[in-house]
C-alpha cells in the first residue's frame, strides 16, 4: 500500500474548491476530475468518508495487513459502530432489494407519514440483527467506503448525479455491472459520531432527496 506524501499531486493545495454544496458523491466526483483519474487509478485503495467519524490509531496498519486478502473485491466495508444506536451499521444491505421493495421505498419517501411509521417499527429491528463475520454482501454503509484499485481498473465509476442519499446502492449496482463484489470485514472498525451534516437537514429536504435517490436507482438499474 502506498503511504508516501510524494503521491499527493504537486498542485493539490492550490485547488480552489467550489462554494456550492455538490453533495456527497458530487463532491467526490469533482475532486476525482480535479486531481485526475490517472492519479486515482494508481492508488491501491481509495477511501470516501463522512466527516463525523473517528478511526483507531492502528486502523491503516490493519487495513494494510488485510489488503492483499481482499484486493480482488471492489469495496471493503468495515464495521461502522454507532454509539447512539448501539449497533454496527454494516452490513448495510445483505442482498439486492427486490423491485417491489424498491417501489415500496419510493412510496415511503413520497409520503413521509409511512416513513415515520417505519422508523417506529421495522427500523428498530436492525438493532436486533445478529453479528456477522467477514461475508460477501450487496452494499456497505456509505459513511466510510473503501474502494480497491481493481474497482477503477475494471471501469467502476463514481458519477452518481443525485445530491445526497442512495450512494451505497448506486455503488453496489456499479460493482455488479463490472462483475465484482463487496466484502464486509468487521475487524476494521470505525466509530460513527452520528450525522454531523444530514442530521441537521430539514425533514422536507430529507424526504425529497431520498425520493429522488430511490427514483434514480429504480429508473437506471431496475426498470
The tally of strands reads 7
The biggest sheet amounts to: 7 strands, mixed
Distance between the termini: 40 Å
> Which structural category fits the helices and strands?
alpha+beta
Low-confidence stretches: 1-7
**In one word, what is the shape?**
globular
Write the element-wise H/E pattern from the N-terminal end onward. Answer: HHEEHEEHHEEHHEH
Tell me the β content: 15-25%
Radius of gyration: 18 Å
Overall pLDDT metric:
85
Please, could you describe this protein's structure?
The protein is of the alpha+beta class and 223 residues long. 39% of the residues lie in helices and 17% in strands. The chain has helices at residues 24-35, 37-41, 59-70, 99-110, 112-120, 149-153, 167-177, 203-222; strands at residues 45-49, 53-55, 75-82, 87-88, 135-137, 144-148, 182-192. α4 packs across α5 and α4 (99-110) packs antiparallel against α8. The protein starts with 23 loop residues before the first helix and ends with a helix. Residues 1-7 have low confidence and may be disordered.
